[in-house]
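Sample pair:
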Amino acid sequence: MVIRAEDLKNFSEAELEALLRQSYQLDLDMEEKAYRKELEEYEKSLKILQEKYPFIVKVVTQMTQEEKSQLIEWFVKTDTSFLVLANAVNPSPEFKVGFETYCQSLRNQYWAMTASEFQRKLADTFPEHPDPGHESELDRIRTENEKQVYLAIDKNDILSPMLGLIEDYAKKSLKQDKQVFITVDHAMTENSNDSQADYLYTNEEMEAIVGLNNRLIALGMEQYIRVNELTKCTMSADFADAWSVKDVLEANNQIDNIVSFLKKSNYSPFEKMLFIHAYVTHNYEYNDGSLEECRVLPGIVKNKKIVCSGYASFIKAIIDKLDDPDLKCDIVGCELYSRGLVKTYEGAHCHNLIHIKDPKYNIGGSYVEDATWDSKTKKTKTGRGFAHCLFPVKDLQQMEDLIYNHKFKQSRFDTLIADRENVEGDSEPTYSRKTPELVARYADRSTPIPLETFKKGLHAMYLQTKNQYHNDHLASKKVDQMIDWSAYIASKSFRSTASSAFREIRVDKKLVARVKSTMQPTKQ
């Protein structure tokens, strides 16, 4: 259980102490349930390893001592449960970790086990080792956990007096030799898809978080404040799943750098969007990972992993912080089906809907922005052009191999996790019965942007970017080459009836040959 900022305001000190004792017991109960479940899985896995995979023992026993040491070190750092399995299944005495290391791994992983269970595990793995009375070690760990205080404050309250309440209570707890853990959180399920991008903070909010973080560290607080916007923290385990202040600050700084550059430029809204598309598709290559690693901003910036909802979140973050009334952005979730006699469910997908008004280019409407399909690959290190940048929504019905079935999600969180849901599509999905909702809603506001407009915008964008901060990749190719490359990609993505600007170019063998000769991957 976590004490929230509003609890500090509404409860007396005695009631807060009672909450702390209650929170420890709830955490202990949760840990014990998790331990029981993991113990059951462990015993199943151990049986499988011993009966079906005896070669594991052979492989490990053939390792050199240095290789075994490296493997043990990896086990200790990454997967304690597998370390336990390795000790139990492998008879090689050289491979066994030291007794103290093994005890520590058990204490860290299973602090909720009973003392007798702890002793039994030691006896099973180290029958020759005398009982050193490690029961007292478990008592010490439990005593330490009872002194841990977990606090949480909603993102919306960062600039309110509640942050002061959190700081005062944290300082009081530190003076009582307690460990303090603070999470700044927000339930993304409360955000609509047109609300501000996730993990995006104002400069004032970041200064408040960083300031509190630094003041508490100066007082002896060992842990960083952490930030979790996927869900509100209710248990102590939620703290470990959140991002550090440093990670969030780095993500916000990267967005700030891009936004600062765009605000100093003379870009029109259309040129800004061309720049954002070029920046994101050049710097990030599609790379799947966990929800936190590749779908939210701190993970994207830190791990350089990104998937479709990550591209959509990144682009929305830039546009949201840019705060240009003539350039707005939503995130749209959808489902993909393959074309053909049998329409197979291909999975879920995310992209952006861009609302743009630019008198300079006579553009006004809502367009699809799908950076995923134009992002760089191992072969195209500078991105794959602009084929999927600001194309009319009705062209979604003209995708060459895919059918889009839009299902508008109720919350940002639902959209964010859409592309990780492994569920089968409807046997007779809605695309077969009516026009997709996105097309029906925005088709009349999505007049195709002419190819000549793209050419003028790209020339202007690249020209203004020359010798600027972000020009190292944007000016690395001639605009005419980029037009050819985009046309080549569009020819493979859209059917002949699509109104995409780049689909206007008739792709023939000469163009394909020219593209392949001029758009070779560049070395970084």
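The mean pLDDT is 76.
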